[in-house]
């Protein structure tokens, strides 16, 4: 871990066999830019690829740093233990959906890193008292769905959203994991919000 990294008490560091999951810091701008400027990585993200380091600095501040003053802010940089430089991110939303999201630099795809990081963060959320989490993936990105399955999430339904700011129609599959034994609970807001919804056989 970098010597000058100040640990945020609201986002406890998590270690796995290969990874350190830690809060983002202001010196992570260049690494975040490397992740979010890649057009292939961006294919299934809602925002457009970042074009400048200044955009990355703003994104870091607005989507990570400002959240770390909250009592619990589960927004992690995914880093290899070898250098603690971010190669991806792993987030849990703070709305009723408790949306779980993640992204990874493409040169680390296919190595089981997303699943390893996700399993660790999900265990942390469970121990923190979360009742459930949800996650969604574009039907054209089934590998993201495989990560969801590997951490125990179950498919619930699909819906079509006009995704912003790209303004394109996307069919999402919604997965959920309940931690409290309420296996029948399903987060239905997406179903009620988007008129085009259905259940697939997958």
Describe this entry's structure for a reader.
The strands form 2 sheets. The protein has a 5-stranded antiparallel beta sheet. Strands 6-8-7-9 form a 4-stranded antiparallel beta sheet, with helices on one face. 27% of the residues are buried. It has 6 helices and 9 strands; from the N terminus they run E-E-H-H-H-E-E-E-H-E-H-E-E-H-E. Residues 1-7 have low confidence and may be disordered. With 202 residues, it is of the alpha+beta class. The chain is globular. It has one domain (14-198): Gcn5-related N-acetyltransferase (GNAT) (Aminopeptidase), CATH 3.40.630. It is 26% helix and 27% strand. The termini are far apart.
List the helices and strands and how they pair.
Elements: E1 14-15, E2 19-23, H1 29-36, H2 39-42, H3 53-63, E3 75-80, E4 86-92, E5 100-104, H4 113-127, E6 132-138, H5 142-150, E7 154-163, E8 168-178, H6 189-193, E9 197-198
Antiparallel strand pairs: 1-2, 2-3, 3-4, 4-5, 6-8, 7-8, 7-9
Helix pairs in contact: 1-3
């Amino acid at each position: 871990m970098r010597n000058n990294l100040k640990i945020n008490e609201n986002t406890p560091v998590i270690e796995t066999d290969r990874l350190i999951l830690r809060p983002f810091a202001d010196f992570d701008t260049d690494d975040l830019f490397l992740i979010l400027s890649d057009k292939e990585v961006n294919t299934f993200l809602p925002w457009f690829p970042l074009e400048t380091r200044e955009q990355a600095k703003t994104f870091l501040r607005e989507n990570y740093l400002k959240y770390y003053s909250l009592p619990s802010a589960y927004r992690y940089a995914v880093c290899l233990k070898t250098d603690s430089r971010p190669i991806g991110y792993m987030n849990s939303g703070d709305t009723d959906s408790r949306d779980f999201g993640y992204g990874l630099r493409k040169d680390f795809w296919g190595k089981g890193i997303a699943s390893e990081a996700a399993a660790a963060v999900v265990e942390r959320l469970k121990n923190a008292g979360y009742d459930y989490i949800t996650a969604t993936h574009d039907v054209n990105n089934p590998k993201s769905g495989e990560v969801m399955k590997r951490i125990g999430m179950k498919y619930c339904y699909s819906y079509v959203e006009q995704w912003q700011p790209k303004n394109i129609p996307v069919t999402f599959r919604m997965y959920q994991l309940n931690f409290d034994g309420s296996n029948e609970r399903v987060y239905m807001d997406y179903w009620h919000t988007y008129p085009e919804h259905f259940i697939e056989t997958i």
